[in-house]
Amino acid sequence: QSALTQPPSVSGSPGQSVTISCTGTSSDVGVYNRVSWYQQPPGTAPKLMIFEVNNRPSGVPDRFSGSKSGNTASLTISGLQAEDEADYYCSSYTSRSTYVFGTGTKVTVL
Amino acid sequence: QVQLVQSGGEMKKAGASVKVSCKASGYTFTSYGISWVRLAPRQGLEWMGWISTYDGTTRYAQNFRDRVTMTTDTSTNIAYMELRSLTSDDTAVYYCAREIVSTTYFDYWGPGTLVTVSS
User: Fold this and answer.
1) pLDDT score for B119
2) DSSP code of A60?
3) Cα distance from B60 to chain A (closest Cα, Å)?
4) Rounded to an integer, what distance in angstroms lies between the CA atom of residue B94 and that of residue B114?
5) Is B20 helix (H, G, I), strand (E, B) or coil?
6) Residue A57 forms contact with B (CB below 8 Å)
7) Nearest to residue A37, comparing CAs of A83, A82, A77, A96?
8) How far apart are CA B76 and CA B30, in angstroms?
9) What residues form DSSP beta bridges with B49?
């Protein structure tokens, strides 16, 4: 199972919006609405930010939103803040009843 | 509150095995599955496998199928992950993560256990 493809890095100034793409296949991202997104600042454990494509857990700011079209899912951070600087990973359930993560994207706040 | 507390860091020689534990508290252990995920240096997150804390059913990623074993002890609310035939490529931080039954995402994560493998 190959990792889902994410851009290595994205950046933006405070207040701007950034979008991270996550491209898979018809065996994972494309077949289920079971894409989740995780935020991981350096040296800390991942934190769930979005589940089932576009749902936010309690406590996650509404600046974070998710979407999906075909085999590509996306995470958008609106109104970028300094505290959003971290690595972000997508994850998808697969047709083999396994999980696959994305390659990871480093978000830099300029 | 939900807590997943993992065992301490390990240093191993190539060819050895390591067993990492994950003690759960603050919720009903058998209502949630546990997945194991690792983060190697300069790599991304990698899913290793999942275990049902209810009946012990396991699913392993193909990359680890031949040398990983996941178990649970429901009397102590601890999940274990054992990885055998270690190489330097297995140097990584290993995380346990909770998964609500019938969902497909990880809502709580342990702090991670650093496993260092030297040749």
Assistant:
1) 87
2) S
3) 8
4) 6
5) strand
6) yes
7) A77
8) 11
9) B36, B60
State residue A79's pLDDT score: 95
- At B100, the pLDDT band (50, 70, 90 cuts) reads confident
Closest C-alpha to A77, from A18, A15, A7, A26: A18
Start-end of H helices in A1-110 = none
Written as six digits, the tokens of B80 are: 């274990």
What was the pLDDT predicted at B47? 97
Our measurement of the distance from residue B29's CA atom to the centroid of its chain's CA atoms, rounded to an integer in Å, reads: 15
- pLDDT of B101 > 80? The answer is no
The minimal CB distance from A101 to the residues B44, B104, B110 is found for B44
Cβ proximity of B116 and B12 under 8 Å: yes
What is the Cα A108 distance to its own chain's centre? 15
For residue B106, give the amino acid letter.
F
Matching residue, tokens 């990871």: A104
Tell whether A60 lies on the interface with B, counting CB pairs under 8 A.
no
Count of C-beta atoms within a 10 Å radius of residue B69: 16
In angstroms, what is the C-alpha Rg of chain A? Answer: 13
| pLDDT digit string, tens, across residues A34-79 | 999 999 999 999 999 999 999 999 999 999 999 999 999 999 999 9
A 10 A CB-CB count for A2 gives: 9
Contacts for B102 with CB less than 8 Å, ≥ 6 apart = none
